[in-house]
Amino acid sequence: MNLEEVAKRAGVSTATVSRVLNNIDVVRNATRVKVLRAVQELNYHPNLHARTLAGGKSRTLGMIVSNMENPFFFDVFRTLEADARLQGYDVFLANTDYRPEQLTRSIRLMIGRRVAGLAVVVSEMDADLIQELTNSKIPTVFYDVGTATRNISNIRVNYRRGIEQVVEYLHSLGHRKLAFIGHHSALGPTSEREQAFLDTVSRYAPGAEWRTAADQDGLEGGRSAARELLATGFRPTAIICVNDFVAAGVLRELRQHGLRVPQDVSVTGFDNIKLSEFCCPPLTTLHIPRDRIGHLMFQFLAPETHTGKPPGKEIMIDPELILRESTGPAASE
Fold it and tell me: What is the tens place of the pLDDT at every residue in 245-261?
């Protein structure tokens, strides 16, 4: 498949196809739509590194993440990049901001660059894109989405067990009014944590009252979701947050409302990013070993290393409960 065939299918010149693929705004919208439709129909991926690859095998890895503002993603990237540099690889990074259309664009860009391997740490994946990556034959490792197959490996976290640990712990402290604050609740890994919360509360604390709220992934998202929750009039004695980044925003909003943590409300996070230690008070959370995830990703994508792992495997990671000062006994009614 080449540029000329795309141009012929779209009924335009190769120069116009090139302008569309390089996102140059001089192309009319109707023409852009025709070109992009032809690209999709022909499953065309521009070889952006053709001249480089002509002389040998690619030494570039790709990584796509959902939110580079969240330190969780940066920690995984930093470890992967450090391993890659030691073995003579570069890492090309793309950020989606949880936008499915940006994910599609980034995946096709990585395929077009003929990366040697691709790490995908996102929540907004769909089956068609997984199939596209399978067809590309590029070694790929997913974090928490998709299933392992041929050229695709998967690293998963046992979110359910993690949430169970938190709910059991809070229940032991007498908490019977619980809330879960998430983000992008329609996405797989985040909705899994919310569902685990609902299932565990019904099993371990059937008489408990509970609410859920969600906003964006980040400090402001945590503040907004907490504000929305408190505006309902519900007063939880404990709030379980989808991650530490959101939890830090929740802590700020609780202070704005004059609520003390943990005397009035206990708060927990998830991930154990460095920020969780420096929150006020330090955050009870669930530890996910981001360095281990980064190491594993590189091993899956660079099998020629002495620790290389074959593709098509799945690894499950159990989170560890870390107790700090943001949790305590439930306040008396």
Answer: 999 999 999 999 999 99
As for how many domains the chain has, the answer is: 3
Report how far residue 275's alpha carbon sits from residue 245's, in angstroms, rounded to the nearest whole number: 8
CATH number of domain containing 110: 3.40.50.2300
Summarised one tens digit per residue, pLDDT across range 19-52 is 787 666 678 888 888 888 888 888 887 665 554 4
Taking the C-alpha atoms of residue 114 and residue 173, their distance in angstroms, rounded to an integer, is 53
Residue 185 pLDDT > 80: no
On whether residue 230 sits in a domain, the answer given is yes
Q: Cα Rg for the chain, rounded, in angstroms?
A: 23
Q: What length does the chain have?
A: 333
Q: Which pLDDT does position 51 carry in this prediction? A: 42
The answer to the question of residue 332 being in a domain is no
Q: Which 3 state secondary structure label does DSSP give 142? A: strand
Domain identity same for 150 and 163: no
Q: Which residue, 63, 87, 83, 86, is CA-closest to 74?
A: 63
Residue 62 predicted with pLDDT over 90: yes
Q: Tell me: the pLDDT tens digits for 221-242?
A: 999 999 999 999 999 999 999 9
Burial of residue 133, with CB atoms counted within 10 A of its CB: 0-12 exposed, 13-18 middle, 19 or more buried: buried
Is residue 148 located within the same domain as residue 178?
Answer: no
Same domain, 76 and 172: no
The token pair at 6 is 């795309």
Residue 163 lies in a domain: yes
> Domain range holding 24?
1-44
Helices and strands, counts by H and E, the chain:
13, 12
